[in-house]
């Protein structure tokens, strides 16, 4: 059942067995899809692309092979930069350039069985899909021993003018009884509402530049960890300065969250692992690889490391009797939205998962190749995914999965996906198509899933077991976004 919703688009029936589709292109633009054997790819002829942007397939194959070998050699760096330029020159923001594609079946098992019940989903299909994502996209967490210590650093019952209690708790890691370097510490910042009795539900998420960025409250410890440079924010020589306090006030809306009866829990993502290809050993992957080991091609990248760290934060919450760890809404923006989705997929203790503008490698379908593609993301951020994900650079159709299957791993727990109209890099339409195709996993559980079959109007949230909105504006988290997530949490937690 295909329905035309606007020129160049088809909306698709959500009947679980009808997964055929997909999109039609009007083919008026200079659009050409070449299937080239070997390592090459569907190439879009983009106006303005130069001859250099079409290197021959042998050259690409040679560079791709180097990428797959991984490591930190100069050769690797040369291959990465070459391919990054190549894949970037083929990025499109034009719906007409979206190729035909066919999504892998969500509800058919590897051996061809149709999945018809929640039991079959839990016992069979969910595990298969999880394995596919571990091996091909985010990477497996290898086995290693570790112990944790939770240390309360401070507690102030009169924070935010008496509205909240501010607690700061450090998670310290030990291995074989030995305390590890100071940088292996996750510093949690927690605000608890003072007007309600605990245990309270919580909104939890990682932040980009330290806990001090979420509120000007000068009781928040200023992060001393390595950070990506950002002068506007006051990150100077890779360290946070006082200027960064409260910079992201509007992304977190601490007072709003607390007033509505939720705790807010956050930590700097770089406490778990710095967002930098050369700094794996300053983060939790050190626990697995020590001073010299390297991840295998199917082992975790930084996104999976962040997700692992989120689970450790939840381990702490299990011990905090002021917070109801069974009512934690995990929220992540952008790269940290990808991490939130993967954490929600791998750890079913997260009760609600919210993806804010997570885009490529997050909520958006890879096969649409709209905005940031697999080739672009892998060559821009070589540390984010398992090295195996490089196999699909420019070859999205060969992926044994697509991101709707990641979203389905959250089922039957409530999931909210949010896009922004101008955030084309994250492919808003691809995010919507993705939840549409994830919805059958919810319906299998007797739930409504996504309550609409067509993309709702701008700034008009819809909320079933899956929530969705596309708002006006750019790539960001706004006060309005947070308000919708809290409404969604109220709906499911109360
Ligand atoms: C971009 C990246 C996106 C998204 C974004 C962000 O540079 O291409 O995938 O993660 O950063 O995290 O803000």
Protein described:
29% of the residues lie in helices and 18% in strands. The protein is of the alpha/beta class and 494 residues long. The strands form three sheets. Strands 3, 4, 5, 6, 7, 10, 11, 12, 13, 14 and 15 form an eleven-stranded mixed β-sheet that branches. A two-stranded antiparallel sheet has the order 1-2. The longest helix has 21 residues, at 118-138. The relative contact order is 0.13. Residues 1-51 have low confidence and may be disordered. The structure holds beta-D-galactopyranuronic acid. Beta-D-galactopyranuronic acid binds next to helix 10.
Summary keywords:
494 residues; 13 helices; two-stranded antiparallel sheet; binds beta-D-galactopyranuronic acid; alpha/beta
The residue ranges in which pLDDT falls below 50 over 5 or more consecutive positions are 1-51
Question: Which structural class is indicated by helix and strand composition?
Answer: alpha/beta
Give the helices and strands as they follow along the chain. Answer: EEHHHEEEEEEEHHEHHHEHEHHEHEEH
The overall pLDDT average reads 90
Give the helix proportion (percent range). Answer: 25-40%
Report the count of strand segments.
15
Which percent band covers the strand fraction?
15-25%
Bound molecules: beta-D-galactopyranuronic acid
Distance between the termini: 37 Å
Largest sheet: 11 strands, mixed
Helix count from the secondary structure assignment = 13
Rg (C-alpha, Å): 22 Å
Shape: globular
Topology of this structure?
Layout: E1 2-4, E2 10-12, H1 57-69, H2 74-88, H3 118-138, E3 147-159, E4 164-175, E5 178-179, E6 185-193, E7 200-207, E8 235-236, E9 239-240, H4 249-252, H5 254-259, E10 263-268, H6 269-272, H7 286-289, H8 302-319, E11 323-333, H9 335-346, E12 352-356, H10 374-380, H11 403-408, E13 415-420, H12 428-443, E14 462-463, E15 466-471, H13 479-493
Parallel strand pairs: 7-10, 7-11, 11-12, 12-13, 13-15
Antiparallel strand pairs: 1-2, 3-4, 4-5, 4-6, 6-10, 8-9, 14-15
Helix pairs in contact: 1-2, 2-10, 8-9
Bound molecules: beta-D-galactopyranuronic acid (GTR).
